[in-house]
Amino acid sequence: MNLTISGHHLEVTSAIREYVQNKLERVTRHFDQVIDIAVILTVDNLKEKEKRQKAEINLRMSGKTVYVESLSQDLYAAIDTLIDKLDRQVMKYKNKVQQHGHDAIKHIPDSYEPAAAAV
Fold it and tell me: In this entry, which stretches build a coiled coil (predicted)?
């Protein structure tokens, strides 16, 4: 798994990097077929007194790419909500993949005999 953490208008410190890595362990624990993760942390300086902190992530899995973004006034809060959203989407995809393989068995009739079908 490749992990890229970058910052726009922000220097990514080791504390921020460790915080993101610790939070991403939750996602990789639920679904281990992650190929690539790209995290972008942004600080938007607005003319108002408030600063907007933005965290976005692109997560490539086998068969799907998930994009999630989160806005907050605090960068750590933005990261927390980002990971929550990402975890929900990954779990939804994982359940979909697991259930997809078992649906075909339900449609086989009870009186199905492999020897009779081969004739």
Answer: none
- Claim: this prediction has a pTM higher than 0.85: no
Domain definitions of the chain by residue range = 1-93
Question: Using CA atoms, how far apart are residues 70 and 81, in angstroms rounded to an integer?
Answer: 6
CATH topology for the 1-93 domain:
Double Stranded RNA Binding Domain (3.30.160)
Alpha-carbon distance of 111 to 43, in angstroms, equals 63
Alpha-carbon separation of residue 58 from 2, 6, 42, 114 (angstroms): 12, 12, 14, 45
